[in-house]
Structures are given as structure tokens and as C-alpha cells.
Structure prediction request, 162 residues.
Amino acid sequence: MPTTKSRSAIGKMSRRKGMSYENKICKILSKWSGEQFVRRGVGFSDKDILTPEWFGWSIECKKVEGIRPQDLLKTFPLSGSLKEYWEQADSQAKADNKKPMLVFSKNHEGVDYVVIRRCKAIDLLESNAIPHAVVLAPDKVYYVVVTLQELTKLDVELFKCS
Prediction:
């Protein structure tokens, strides 16, 4: 007789998946910047990644099945789980006096996507011909969607707090 996984087991697998994804993003950002980005420890509920003091963004990571990058461009204003994830990123960023950054990947895919509000650093995506999408939401805020791989081609200096 086949067994079904308990909610507890599914929850543990989900947390492990999230921790693994956060560690992956920390390694990418640490290599890019030359400084430590560290996954927060157990017991922290307000942020996924502890960033260097100079880094101007607060990072929320999601490794989920329900987000498809192509849908992202069609869902402004944000709705559903994507809205919930962005609000979580925005709330923790405000608490940290930083800008929100949502980093996500669909399960079983190797591409990491970044969503941030448009800023001076992102204007350089255009001048450097880095592929990205800019979306004007109904709230008159520009959001930028870019792969993490492309974003890390930009100079670290552009991401320092001003």
C-alpha cells in the first residue's frame, strides 16, 4: 500500500529546499561581490539573507513551482503568491531601510530571476545591452525583471547604499 507524506514531512522538505536555494544565492552573490552574503540562521523570520552593510537591497528568495517568468510580465499589478512574496520582500526591506529584491526560480529549473523596482543601477542594463524587462505597473512604479546571471555582470559599486 503506497504511503502519503505527512504535512510535517512535506514542510521539512520545503524548508530544506528553501535553505538550499538561499545558500545557492549567497554563494553567487558572495563570488560576485567578494564579500559574504550569508543565509540567516534558524529563528530569524524577517529576512532570508544577511547582506553586507553596504549592499542596498534586502533579499527575499523563493524556490517555487507556481511562478513562471513569462507570467510575471502579465501579472502587474501583482496578484496571488507573487504579490505575497513581493509584499514580504518590501516589508523586510522597509524594516532594513533598504530596497526590496525578490529572487526566485521555478522548481527543477536552473535560471534565477530577480525582481526589483527600477533604479539608477538598472538603467545600466540598457546601456550595457543586458537582457531584461521593464514593466510599468498600474501604481506607476517601474519593476525590472532580469536573470541573476545578467544582474551580476554589473559592477558591484552600483548596488551600494547611497
User: Anything to note?
Assistant: The longest helix spans residues 7-33. The chain has a mean pLDDT of 77. Strands lie at 38-39, 49-50, 57-64, 99-106, 113-117, 133-136, 142-147.
